[in-house]
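Hi team,

Filling in the usual template for the complex we talked about on Friday. All components are listed, including any nucleic acid strands or ligand strings, so the model treats them as one assembly.

SUBMITTER: L.P.
PURPOSE: interface mapping
COMPONENTS: four
RESIDUES: 610
SEQUENCES:
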Amino acid sequence: MLSLHQLRCFLATYEQGSLTAAAEELGYAQPSVSEQIRGLEQTLGVQLFRRVGRGVIPTTVADTLRPHAERTLAAAEGTRLAAQQVRRIETGTIRFGMFGVARLYAGADLVADVLERHPGVRVELIGQNSSEVHEDLRRGRLEAAMIAMPSVTSEGMEVRPVARDEVVYVSADPTHLERPVTARRLAEAQLVMPDTSWRHDDSVRTLLRQMLHGTGLNPTTRIEVEDPEIAVELMGRGYGDTVLPRGAAEVLLPRLAPHAGYVSLRPRLYDYFAVVHRAGAVLSPAAQLMIELATARIQRIAEPL
Amino acid sequence: MLSLHQLRCFLATYEQGSLTAAAEELGYAQPSVSEQIRGLEQTLGVQLFRRVGRGVIPTTVADTLRPHAERTLAAAEGTRLAAQQVRRIETGTIRFGMFGVARLYAGADLVADVLERHPGVRVELIGQNSSEVHEDLRRGRLEAAMIAMPSVTSEGMEVRPVARDEVVYVSADPTHLERPVTARRLAEAQLVMPDTSWRHDDSVRTLLRQMLHGTGLNPTTRIEVEDPEIAVELMGRGYGDTVLPRGAAEVLLPRLAPHAGYVSLRPRLYDYFAVVHRAGAVLSPAAQLMIELATARIQRIAEPL
DNA sequence: GTGAAAGCATAGGCAGATCCTTGGGATGAC
DNA sequence: GTCATCCCAAGGATCTGCCTATGCTTTCAC
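RESULT (copied from the run log):
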């Protein structure tokens, strides 16, 4: 079987014109190189050098094969080099999970932070929602992620909360914002809620369900949409109120519903942001980098823990 | 140390998405492939697959390295293929030794014969003279050759005569050609001799020296030139006679000295053509081919043995 | 929920490859 | 002729590669 080691010995011998010199260059004893050359000649079925008493002389076959051997070794070196560069995060792809609203807060800045420090890399910010990210983590498609809690159960996952953001009641009607909103008021509200497809996993929905659980009530969602932007815009036009993490409200309201405001719930509810990865996993440098940068960004918007 | 085997296992695993499937494709047991992957990850210092209970998932590092691994394996395959082609004489260089007058007889036809059968090869017909060829053989720079005998001693060489050519006396003066030329007549002649630089090794000169040895005489060389063509042309203009192998005379006279003729020496002298290579050498297919074709060509011009 | 199947890791053992040292033969320089 | 150089050959130590057997985790079907 052809091996890189054989090719290295071949090239050294060809260039040095001597097995002894080649062995010295490669740091081996002379018989070892001799054996490699013999093995190469046997696997290829050709004679590469004529042994002529003292010294060896390359045959025309050796002349022909030399550029091929050089190409092969160069390609192998390229492989090694590419791995080195990836290891130093000079190149390659960084894939990181981040669900909807966290990405809304910090996504663009996070990518900018990464590219600032590592201009050569590709960045993939994966995940429409928290539970999809969770599934990707579990299946190994993602190494680490920033998710919102409480969410689906996290068996086999290591979850480290890094920040929390209050969940607030948002309305374009000032009379709805005069006092903190209780469970009873919430149950009576007409709501425009985003993230319809994920309503069973979404952390804000989960919080609201927990809040109303003791009262036997359910919030009325008058309108269900996918995008928080659409929900906010509809809320601004008076089609209903909505419930959002405060960070999202502060990002979206000035742009989409300048006349709307928000107020706390009573009791206050909090959405937690956490770093998640498989329990017991050794994180790559790239994942550690993403975790560090994402945490820093989230903590500039939400409340650090 | 990086190895082709590791890269083969890596690619098979990447494409199959499973160590077990890769092992089956490669014809190994699963733990063997597993070990190779682990070794590759260790030598490169990166994680290529995430082990996730059932199955493995390639990391983004694996995505990045895959094309490099493919290039490397393709280059290695190219090396193997090139060797195969050389072995079948489909490509590569054929180097063969042939000294002056033999090349004059058969050189162009020999090259044509080779290219007819093996259109992809390069051909090198090496050697200004017999003794240079001999030295190249001894040093290993040439594998085999066609030389003229008697020449320098052939210790360590295997010499197989394949044809002989009579050495004849050539003159533009018909009176010189009426009878076979004896040693006495030869010693009195004014000669124009080619191959000046090699006069001590040249086989025709050696024959003449042997012929005159018993008489205590030396041939008078009025003019010494390098090329047989020049010698024949000067002879044709009457500046002297010359001595040549008959094959050379028949090639050169019609073109360069149409009024000249030739006659035998007494006793007759013969130049022998022989195939030569290092004693005990195993000849490559290319060398065997050249020997076969060169022998056939020489035997169509000179007298086969 | 439970058992069966799939897939990877680990452990132990065997065969072959790799590498070294020592010694012998051929060649070339003086 | 003598010595130095350079290759091959042989023997032994170590390492690598590969196998089988086994255990653990995840996945899937009932």
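MY TAKE: The mean pLDDT of chain B is 88. The longest strand of chain B covers residues 261-278.

Thanks, L.
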